[in-house]
Write a structure and sequence with these properties.
Elements (H helix, E strand, L loop, with lengths): L2 H36 L15 H26 L3 H6 L2 H18 L9 H6 L6 H6 L1 H18 L7 H7 L5
Helix pairs in contact: 1-2, 1-7, 4-7
Length: 173
């Protein structure tokens, strides 16, 4: 493993994770899900820490950034063994593959029953209805697509290096 390349890749994936998570959350919290946290019927407050309880919310504020950094590092560690393969692919294919991996494994098919996941639709109790599962989808999709776009873009060849790398690939056309 090339330590410098891994470190740079990990930094880029982590930055993309932190940025897209924060941006998607800030946008869609205000537009679609705020009432589930602190509204008149805060259904997420039954199983999540919310800002309605400042003593519990302090934990979120303390651990939010370290948790997202750790998630980025873990994502990079899983993607890195495929680095050369992904880098050889065109941007669109790389983007779709990373987005699909994130959306399917991290969200829709996750092992835990969370809002928006298949397990959540099966195991979470009312009032977490189908509408709730639908309303969290835009945030999940926006973050997954944003993360994939940033990571796929970060893996592109620098100008001038692209041609030499392509020539080195067997059967590249």
């Amino acid at each position: 493993m090339q330590l410098k390349r891994f470190t740079v890749f990990t930094a880029k994936v982590t930055a993309a994770q932190v940025a897209t998570y924060f941006i998607a959350g800030a946008i869609f919290y205000q537009l679609l899900t705020k009432d589930y946290y602190i509204g008149p019927n805060p259904i997420f407050a039954a199983f999540m820490r919310t800002e309605a309880e400042p003593e519990l919310w302090a934990h979120v504020m303390r651990w939010f950034l370290p948790a997202q950094i750790l998630r980025g590092i873990l994502m990079a560690a899983v993607l890195y063994p495929l680095f050369d393969t992904l880098k050889a692919w065109p941007f669109g294919k790389r983007f779709l593959w990373i987005a699909g991996l994130y959306l399917v494994f991290a969200c829709w098919a996750s092992a835990g029953p969370v809002p928006g996941s298949i397990e959540g639709m099966v195991y979470l109790r009312p009032p977490l209805t189908g509408l709730v599962h639908l309303k969290v989808q835009p945030e999940i999709i926006f973050q997954g697509l944003g993360l994939a776009a940033l990571v796929a873009r970060a893996m592109r060849e620098a100008p001038g290096k692209a041609q030499s790398s392509i020539r080195e690939l067997p059967n590249a056309a």
